[in-house]
Fold this protein.
Amino acid sequence: MFRFLLLISIITTIGACQRKEKPSSNLAQTDILKIDSIAPNVWIHRSYLQTESFGKVECNGLIYKNGDDIVIIDTPVDDSSSTALLSWINANLNNKVKAVVCTHFHEDCIGGIKVFNEQKIPSYAYYKTIEKAQEKGLTAPATGFTNDLIVHTGDHFIQCSYVGAGHTHDNSVVYIPEHKILFGGCLIKAMDADKGYLGDADTLEWSSTIQKVKSQFPEAEIIVPGHGEHGGRGLLDYTEKLFKHKQ
C-alpha cells in the first residue's frame, strides 16, 4: 500500500510540474490588448477597433525581437492600446524598440503612431501610405520607402516590401527571414474570411498581387493576416481565389 501511495504521489507531482512548466501562448490579455507568442521572439499583438459595418474587430500586428532590438509591425488601433503595448514591452522584454513599420494608412495600422512618434521611435511606411495618411489629416509615420526597406535587428533583419494593390493601393508586407514569417496585413485574408471592407480596395489587382507575393517570398511558411488567425501558405491561396477576377 505504501509503495502504491508513493507511486501515485510521484505521478501527481510530475503531472503538476509538467502543467506548471508548459508555456502558454497567451502572454497578456486586457480589454484593449492581447499578446500571443507564435515563434521564438515573435509575438502577435491584437487590439480592437470598433467599426460601424463590422462591429468590434480584432486587429493584428507583430513584435519581433533579435539581439538588443525590437521592431513592431503595425501599431495598435489607438493611443491607449499603443501605450499599453510599449508598457508591456518595457516590463517584459527589456529591449529597445528600434522601429515601427506600418503596412497601410488605415486606423488598424497607424492608429497609434502618435505615441511612437512622441517617444521618438523611428517609424516607417511605404511612401504612398504616408501621403494617404497626410491627405486624410492623420498622423503619419515619419519616413517613407519606395519599393523595399531593410531594417536590421541584431544579427538579422526584416524586409518591408510594396508588391502591389489589393486591400488598398498602398498596402505593403513584411517578411522575417529568420522565422520564415510573412506579415501580410490586410492584403491577406484569414482562412474562410469574407472580403471585408473594400472602400479603398483594388479588387481587380488583388489576386495578381497575391501571385507576386507568392513568387517574391517562396520560403515564407507562417502567414499572418491583418485580422483573424495566422496559418500556412494556404492563406495566400485562399486570398488569391477569393479575389480571382472572373473573365
